[in-house]
Hints:
The structure holds two protein chains of two kinds. Chain A has strands spanning 4-7, 10-14, 19-25, 30-38, 45-51, 56-59, 62-67, 72-77, 86-94, 103-104, 108-113. By secondary structure, chain A is an all-beta fold. In chain A, strands 2, 4, 5, 9, 10 and 11 form a six-stranded mixed β-sheet that branches. In chain A, strand 7 and strand 8 form a beta hairpin. Chain B is mostly beta strands.
Amino acid sequence: KNQVEQSPQSLIILEGKNCTLQCNYTVSPFSNLRWYKQDTGRGPVSLTIMTFSENTKSNGRYTATLDADTKQSSLHITASQLSDSASYICVVSPNSGGYQKVTFGIGTKLQVIP
Amino acid sequence: DAGVIQSPRHEVTEMGQEVTLRCKPISGHDYLFWYRQTMMRGLELLIYFNNNVPIDDSGMPEDRFSAKMPNASFSTLKIQPSEPRDSAVYFCASSFGSGNTIYFGEGSWLTVV
């Protein structure tokens, strides 16, 4: 069964600090990997998308990396802000099987404190 | 663009009652999705439509759940009869073209007591 494991489950950091969130997946063959940000009480919003051939993708202070050989991805947040407090969800799409085979991680809950 | 619009935002209902959740996708999008999110299982795809036609409903938990899309700008997810284990956040989402970014609504928070 395809799986997406995210770590840590939760994280508290001081405003201005950097942090890195991890995503390990077993989905294979793999088409693309997305990171979503979900604010409390809101729907998820796409941050980045990477295909299997891409190693890194940036969106402002968010940088996602992908190692397709080890099936690992990370999301690095630079100079964190209070507004970064949210859940971050890793989503992996396989090459086939349609949308039902798209696998969502449970997410990492990040809290940025002053 | 107003984004994906869902209603109601919050619903508390008694076990056995019928629940209807509504969704208006982003104009021009040809894919519509219904997801359920819980703390334990995260986001799960229930059903999705392409050009108003249901493509895959294998994620619908049981016959108590049904979804319709009578036109390109409206969809409903119905639970009848509702049970406490149906308590979750239900998201509607839409996208343009296969494999492209999926845009989520704000969700409908359902509590069945």
